[in-house]
Amino acid sequence: MPSLKSRRRFLLQAGVGLGAFDAIASAWSAAPRASFDAITPFAFGAKGDGRADDTAALNAAYEHARQRRAPAVSLCGATYRVTAGIYARGVSTQGEGATIVATVDAARGGAAFEWGGNGSFVRDLTFDLSNTSKADMQGVLNVVDNARNQRFENNCIVARTIGATPRQSNIFGAWFMGTGLTGLFVTNNQFEACTYGVQINNQAGMTGDVRRAPLGRASSHIHIAGNVCIDASIGVNTPHIGCSNVIVQGNTITAQRLVMDLPLNIAHVTDIAVVGNTVASNASSANGTLHVEDATGAITISGNVVSVLARNNGIQVGTRPSVSGDAREKRKVVISANHIEGSGAAADSAGILIPDAETIDTVIANNAIDRFAEGITVVSRCLVQGNVITACRTPLRVTRDSVQAGNLIA
Questions:
Q1: Cβ 97 vs Cβ 77: under 8 Å
Q2: CB 315 within 8 A of CB 340
């Protein structure tokens, strides 16, 4: 970028007076600029003041970047007001602390912000979202197929519009529907009041078989880590493509204004690690607060803190094939070193529940379980060892061929 000194020399040679030069230089110095070489919306008329409608300027910047094959658009830390969706596919976004204040009519379709593509990222950006329609709105949407190494990191999504009932928002957060994804990282973001904070979702209703009619190529290596979800859930639900090697680690999920059912839900996935998360539910439900369903391969659920604030189960795991019929024969589940606290409700609820006979040889070890109707309930053969179970009316309900050792019941 030319310096002020070189611009001054050019203007003087062109016959521009010093007074005019000083005015131009002052305006140039005050304009927001990217901290790296990238296209910015200001070249396309954006004001970035949070008052002017910058929808057209933002879309023009992304279109220009796609045509020029530029790697990124920088939003320069400014505040942009938009009234329709922003189409950012094929280009990365460097927010640099910017905010997009979007007021969008979901009934017209689309999302507030659509992105994705090989090696693309969205980084350091706040999405402040309002929906003028009663229809559900996808806030930040990724529908690109067969993309590698995508990153959504250090962002914030705030949903301002709540549905007619307090059960959920009608704005979703970061929603991923592409198939054949390899290396997707959703890390260190904050999601507020958008029900589905992070959702990896590939399904076609309640019918179909992934082995005979998949929606696309299978996805793998999904990392969801370090996110803060307030009235927002995390879910990986991929019954009709197949998905493997999923890590959900170090996230915090809490409920405040909304009623949260299934705050952490992993379904139809092979090889899973759910580690070190803090999860709370406040819905009266039988789904479980930390829920794993139709899962296969190596399943590790360890080091999580699970708080059940209403009548519900704590950790609930099943490997029985359901919608997609994609569960394989070999399965192994390890549930260890979790802290699970119930509400003390007298109704039927369990700290750890294995509800189907197909989930055999589960290891349930070194967990702390408190204040449930049932501490550990398993309907198939398992190893239950070294758990501390307190204030549970029925501490252990396991099969006769299960092995129990060293459990402390108080």
A1: yes
A2: yes
What is the distance between the alpha carbons of residues 57 and 32, in angstroms, rounded to a whole number?
15
Check the CA dihedral 168-169-175-177 and report its sign.
positive
The rounded distance, in Å, linking the Cα atoms of 401 and 10 is 88
Contact partners, residue 119, CB within 8 Å, separation at least 6: 92, 148, 149, 150
For residues 265 and 253, the answer to whether their CB atoms sit within 8 Å is: no
364-384 per-position pLDDT tens digit: 999 999 999 999 999 999 999
User: How many Cβ atoms from other residues are within 10 Å of residue 109's Cβ?
Assistant: 10
Question: Could you give the angle at the alpha carbon of 42 between the alpha carbons of 40 and 45, nearest 5°?
Answer: 135
Q: Which two tokens stand for residue 248?
A: 């959900």
- Half-sphere CA count of 263, side-chain side, radius 13 A: 37
pTM of the predicted model, to two decimals?
0.89
Query: E strands along 116-218, which residues?
Result: 121-131, 137-142, 148-153, 156-159, 171-176, 182-187, 190-201
300-347 pLDDT, tens digit per residue, is: 999 999 999 999 999 999 887 765 566 555 568 999 999 999 998 767
Separation CA 55–CA 242 (nearest Å): 37
What structural domains and CATH numbers belong to the chain?
A: 38-234 (2.160.20), 261-410 (no CATH)
Bridge pairing between strands 219-225 and 243-249: parallel
Which residues, at least 6 apart from 240, have a Cβ–Cβ distance to it below 8 Å?
202, 203, 204, 208, 210, 213, 214, 215, 323, 324
CB of 91 closer than 8 Å to CB of 62:
yes
